[in-house]
Each structure stands twice: as structure tokens, then as C-alpha cells.
Write a structure and sequence with these properties.
By secondary structure, the chain is mostly helical. It has one domain. The protein has a two-stranded antiparallel sheet with strand order 1-2. The chain is rod-shaped. The mean pLDDT is 81.
Length: 56
């Protein structure tokens, strides 16, 4: 391996590590059940304010 190939290899590894760190820091955590996506609360009827189940 000559000097030119070695420099390119080091530069490529450096760039890939920088990119991985960049994406790792920008990743956002997702809130489960945000905006009513997990549970549905009944608003009318006998079972008002109770959480609906998928079993019917």
C-alpha cells in the first residue's frame, strides 16, 4: 500500500466516523402515544372518559 492509498483510506474512515456521529447526535426520541396514536378515550355515552380497547 503506497502513501496515496493510505491517505485516502484514513480520510474515508475519518469522514465515515464523522457522519455516524452526526446522525447519532441528531436522532430524536419518539414519544409513545403522542397525539392520541396509542389509546382512544371515549367522549360520549355510558363509558365516557374510558379507554377503548381493540377487542369488540
Amino acid at each position: 500500500m503506497n502513501k496515496f492509498e493510505f491517505k485516502n483510506l484514513v480520510k474515508g474512515l475519518k469522514d465515515s466516523l464523522k457522519e455516524k456521529a452526526f446522525f447519532k447526535n441528531l436522532r430524536k426520541e419518539v414519544e409513545t402515544g403522542a397525539n392520541g396514536t396509542q389509546d382512544y378515550v371515549l367522549k360520549k355515552g355510558v363509558n365516557k372518559d374510558s379507554i377503548a380497547t381493540t377487542k369488540q
